[in-house]
Amino acid sequence: MSAYVQPETSHPAFSGAGNWFRRTEAWFDARGRGAWIALMVVSFIFFWPLGLALLAYLIWSKRMFANHGNCGHRRHHHAAFRMSGMTGNAAFDAYKADTLARLEREQGEFEAFLRRLRESRDKTEFDQYLQERARSAAAETAAPAEEPKGSGAY
Predict the structure, then answer these.
(1) Which residue from 90, 40, 93 is spatially nearest to 63, judged by alpha carbons?
(2) Cβ(16)–Cβ(1) below 8 Å
(3) Cα-flanking dihedrals φ and ψ of residue 5, to 5°?
(4) Cα-flanking dihedrals φ and ψ of residue 67, to 5°?
(5) Are 36 and 64 contacting, i.e. CB atoms less than 8 angstroms apart?
(6) How many CA atoms lie within 13 A of 42 on its CB side?
(7) What is the DSSP code (8-state) at residue 149?
(8) What is the sign of the dihedral through the CA atoms of 144, 147, 152 and 153?
(9) Residue 52: Cβ within 10 Å count
(10) DSSP 8-state class, residue 15
(11) pLDDT tens over the chain, length 154 residues
């Protein structure tokens, strides 16, 4: 004997007072952006504050501007696949692999150069700091010897 659990009550997110809202939202999502726009227009016609609230919800939840399977998403996915995969042209694939390896090597060399440059600059600044500190310490030791001795009378 098996127990049957209803799909909408099996998950805690679908139970409670907000159940009707989530079901309605899922129903409109299944029908696409056009259904949301139609609901918004009807809401504006019958009760404009409700239409305004629905518009704010659609913008806030990014339902109006989401790309659900449109051509742009597929084009981006296809371009990413082309860039990472083999083309089938052996000469081009070898050239591409060599170029990418060279670019990675040059990037590593450039980052090493920048690291050496920073270390050199830091060493120069630190040496300058030590020289200024030594000068100020020498000036402080020379300054008390030059103080005039007063007569003590005011």
Answers:
(1) 40
(2) no
(3) -115, 130
(4) -100, 95
(5) yes
(6) 6
(7) P
(8) negative
(9) 13
(10) S
(11) 445 444 444 444 445 556 887 888 888 888 888 888 898 899 999 988 988 988 888 888 877 666 555 544 455 555 555 556 678 889 999 999 999 999 999 999 999 999 999 999 999 999 999 999 999 988 888 776 555 565 555 5
Both tokens of 24, joined, read 């309605």
135: tokens are 């000068």
Residue 148 CA neighbour count, 13 Å, CB half: 3
DSSP states along 19-44:
HHHHHHHHHHHHH-HHHHHHHHHHHH
Q: What are the tens digits of pLDDT across the range 44-56?
A: 999 889 889 888 8
